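We modelled the chain as a single entity of 521 amino acids. Its sequence is:
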Amino acid sequence: MSISTNLARNTVRQLIELGVEDVVLSPGSRNAPLSIALHQAEERGLIHLHVRIDERGAAFFALGISKVTGNCVPVVCTSGTAVANFFPAVLEAHHSNVNLLLLTADRPTRLRKTGSNQTTEQNDIFNGFVRNSIDSAVPIDLREILSATGPVHINLQFDEPLLPNDSKDWLFGISPVNLKPVPLPHSELKCGTSRNIVIVGHDRAGFAESEIENLARSLNAPMIAEDPLRFKDALAHASIILSSEKARTALSPELVIVIGRTTLSRNINSYIDNAARVIVIDPRTSHIDTERSADEILHSIPKTTNSNRDDNWWKLWSDFESKAKAALADYPSWSEGALASIVAADLENDTALFIASSRPIRDLEAFATPRADLVTYANRGLAGIDGNISTALGIASHHDETFAILGDLAFLHDISALANPTDDALTILVVDNNGGGIFSTLPQRGVPGFEKLFGTPHNQDLAKIVSGFGISNEVVTNTKELQIALKRIHPKNHVIIARMPSREENAEALKEVNAKYSMSL
């Protein structure tokens, strides 16, 4: 047996024994030993092998699977520039603590710095953003290496010959083992205050919804959730409620508990900054966000003693929530915020929903009515717009029905993913406002050269582009058409293009809602 075949088989065998079920592969020559071993394992029903032709998309696809399953998901590539294409997903996995295993094929050490084809310094290329980084030409023990959460890099040196020269049944007798994570110890939180509020970032720092809800109940605290589709008792329209300084002052809390990272809303972040006491609960503060500041930082949901309920505090929030709802009464029925509200309300129970960064995630936070029966995902580690389609495709591979809501620039940024569609039921809803709508709601709005520098109109017919990939699609231009489109079931990939009013109109509508709300206080 060749050295490379032995290395590949040993690696794949260990992955199966350690409970790996899905592997994502980008084709290449140097990774041929791994590709062949993985295919043989799939033929025996031991793994699911997903082939993605683009390495950047492959890594985000693996990221999506790991988000659903919580398992370690290997993504395999050949040598050279292929490795560097993993980097955006590595950063996202690092900051969101997702279990991604980067298996990069490399030439032998003797060929480095010799001008050999497709040979560069791959070892430690992800330095600082992976939990472990191993460079090896011989089999290694993976159990301890994969024990940490987050991304791990194993750079495997494959020498020729790359193809197997035997027919040995090397997969005989494999028995997978499920590795159970070690639970974090619970601390205790003594709380003598009654004006408490719990603010939950989109990924919930990895905690279960029930843990967070129990904490809020024990503190008699209202809850603000960046993702209101996972907490039916969360306050609605919190980013609008706190858009007024008068409201932020009136609702000034004695204690804010932030679970995970803070939301994207500047209004909510301003509210947190003015709190008398802030407690952050996020295990990432021990090894990723090590410089995060708060009055107290915890790594797990604490046990608490019941706080007294301040009915006036709850009534105050309820009154402000009602005023925010009233301010939305005249909001345009065909707008980006209304679209988010419709999607949040009309999707069937247990549907998976991937939410892109920029405006979609903000619009759902501001306009959606809270519910708790959707399964939501987002790339909030770094809140980037790259790899969104690929991530959604990975998520869809493990759900019966999946929707994704993306802005048009995020859609175009990962458009190459449509060249490699899947047979999964993924419907992508594209908010088409011909450019970067988020910037019209940020301080740079109106600066000289705004359209060229920030608005960046693409002026593309997205329906024609999608049709060019052979993927079914439709264009909607009003509320009724959108609601009808959301009810249709598509067995494979499908795209809904929602042509929206201009970015400026959307920004003005948001501004008017906040102004109307502020005047009602």
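As a brief sanity check on the tokenised model: DSSP finds 19 helices and 19 strands in the chain. The mean pLDDT is 94.
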